[in-house]
Design a protein that fits this description.
Largest sheet: 4 strands, mixed
CATH topology: Aminopeptidase
CATH superfamily: Gcn5-related N-acetyltransferase (GNAT)
Structural class: alpha+beta
Strand content: 25-35%
Shape: globular
Oligomer: single chain
Number of helices: 4
Radius of gyration: 17 Å
Strand order of the largest sheet: 1-2-3-4
């Protein structure tokens, strides 16, 4: 799925890679979404830097590039999630003056739930 949705005909996301000596050491997976209330949003799904390469500014380089992309494409905001126990990530985003909200609850349905509900929902 990763290949199809990221590199196929109907791409759902984009990736920025951080490389050193032809070796991938980090990445940011992102996509544009639309908010009814806010407009165009650059959504950061994941920013990952290999453990041995953390603390070298690679995450900052990736995040900086996302900020530039958001500005270039006139996004009204950037959005992401961070787990409340991930203190290093929280500090990272706070360095940028990011707003970390406790107001929103995350909702989700698993693939199994979707398939079960599909069988009982009447289509429009």
């Amino acid at each position: 799925e990763l290949i199809d949705y990221g590199f196929g005909e109907q791409r759902l996301f984009k990736v920025i890679l951080a490389e050193t000596e032809s070796k991938i050491v980090g990445m940011a997976l992102w996509y544009f979404a639309y908010s009814t209330w806010k407009g165009k949003v650059l959504y950061l799904e994941d920013i990952i830097v290999k453990k041995d390469f953390r603390g070298m500014g690679i995450g900052s380089l990736l995040f900086n590039e996302l900020i530039l992309l958001a500005a270039k494409h006139r996004a009204k905001r950037m959005q992401w999630q961070v787990l409340n126990w991930n203190e290093p990530a929280i500090r990272f985003y706070q360095k940028y003056g990011a707003n970390l909200s406790s107001e929103w609850l995350n909702g989700s349905l698993t693939e199994e739930q979707i398939l079960n509900l599909k069988n009982i929902i009447q289509p429009l």
